[in-house]
Amino acid sequence: MPHRHQEHDYIPAMGTDRWLPFYDVCTWLLGAQRIHRRLIELAGVEPGHDVLEIGCGPGGLVLRAQRMHPDAEIVGLDPDPLALARARRKAERAGLPVRFDQGKAGELPYPDESFDRVLSSFMFHHLDDAEKDRALAEARRVLRPGGQLHLVDVAGHHHGRFSRRMQHSELLRANAGDGIPDRMRAAGFTAVRTGERGRLHSTYFSATR
């Protein structure tokens, strides 16, 4: 079972609340903006689409998605109220109409067939096996027929010291090999694809409802 912060039943964006103010700087230094842009490009968002990011943290991906697709309706969801507060402040300062909701990926507070796209960026490896399965089932439930899930995460397709450490990490081991696409298929998704590999040992995945 993944370790949970003693004050939460989820893992905060930076592992602990006190590091949250440094989240944007750290992710910028690691090149997360480029990864976010590519994930949004791969998602093929169209005008009028309803788009949900699960595990949005302080909002970097959803705010970029709104800038790139001003005619889409963008929603970010996260269990962390502190991260959501930062995301809402950033959206207000930028004048972007993104909506932020509090909730968990495995218990999405939305009706069936509410979204055309569901996005996830470096959130999936924070979940234990049961939570991974619930999150994928919920993502499929809230997608409209033909809707798509686009996910980027650390996956075990790389070599070197980082990947050797990753194979021994309880949080990351389940992402190795075909772990993510196999789970997508088991959740009922079709057209499951393992896409290009990017920075931070990341791999892009997509699937259709």
Provide an overview of this structure:
Helices cover 34% and strands 24% of the residues. The chain has helices spanning 23-29, 32-43, 60-68, 81-94, 129-142, 161-167, 179-186, and strands at 50-54, 73-78, 99-102, 115-121, 143-154, 190-198, 202-208. A 7-stranded mixed β-sheet has the order 3-2-1-4-5-7-6, with helices on both faces. A hairpin with a 3-residue loop joins strand 6 and strand 7 (202-208). Residues 1-6 and 157-168 have low confidence and may be disordered.
List its traits.
34% helix; 7 strands; single chain; Rossmann fold; 7 helices; 209 residues; disordered N terminus; 7-stranded mixed beta sheet; alpha/beta
CATH H-level homologous superfamily name = Vaccinia Virus protein VP39
CATH fold type: Rossmann fold
Largest sheet entry: 7 strands, mixed
- State the CATH architecture: 3-Layer(aba) Sandwich
Topology, element by element:
Layout: H1 23-29, H2 32-43, E1 50-54, H3 60-68, E2 73-78, H4 81-94, E3 99-102, E4 115-121, H5 129-142, E5 143-154, H6 161-167, H7 179-186, E6 190-198, E7 202-208
Parallel strand pairs: 1-2, 1-4, 2-3, 4-5
Antiparallel strand pairs: 5-7, 6-7
